[in-house]
Write a structure and sequence with these properties.
4-stranded antiparallel sheet; mainly beta; 22 strands; 40% strand; 316 residues
Amino acid sequence: VATVGREGGVKLWRIATSSDKPKTANPSIKLKTQPTKDKPQLIARGHVFKDECISAIQYDSVGSLWVASFEKQCVYRIDSEELRPRLTCCVDNNEGKNGASPIICLAVENEINLLVAGTVKGSVEFFQAETGTLLATWHFQSKDGGNDAYPRSVAIVGSGESTNNDEEEWIVVCGMSDGSLYMRRLRINDETGEIHHPNEEELFFPEEATIDLNSSHQAQVVSLTPHPHPKGRILVSGAHDGTLRVWDCFPEIGSSKKKLRPRCLYGFSGYKVWLGSVCIDDKGERLLSDGSDNTIIVHDFSSAEVDIDDKSNLEQ
């Protein structure tokens, strides 16, 4: 478990097991009682980046923790078995008058070796996850044509199965500070299974520009959560105005059409104050969200009679 607070830095924890004794020789392990299944406890593993403003963290599929430093404008990786951060990449500041570009959100996808970082200067930077090589930069403008909107959340979503092109497809979705949602499709190298590089023209499909999803969110889109179901496709967007939207990112699957824009399946509104984050459980049956009202709301789809091999509960 990793936590970030206003005091700065990243605190790392692990869940105590029955083998951890309250009276141990290790001074870093402080347990009040013997941990049990009904009474789990957290054991502190370490505190890194002390007194530093951390703007985003994310675990990847192999258990590595990715950390974005707001002040240093860099992304670090912490492997699961060690506490030593490793510098992966930094946002280039050689943009003259635009000044610094602090990172405010990130997403990682090991399967295609991709790291995506959104900055407060209104750009999304694409890096190779393993090497930190910059692949491309995606710039945005606000709905009214200005340049004051910036990415507040990003997500990498896969189709989870072969599409009409007999290949798994991937898109990047960006939630903006003005409530809008945008996406671009990625091109995959058939030989390596990774995204095309190093030319930006090879990273995106040239015939498709940025697609506005018309999200209907009226505040910052602070959370983008891909569905954990093996078939993928589903994305949940959440905004500060307390609205949630459930999206089918690849509606062309199962149809005769080649490409279709992501489709909003349904949404929720009016139940949450100043929504903060959204999570989907491992089975894809429960949608959890929190906010400034100090409550966690669970939308439970587990009783839905759905064939999981056909559709996920959230999709239904």
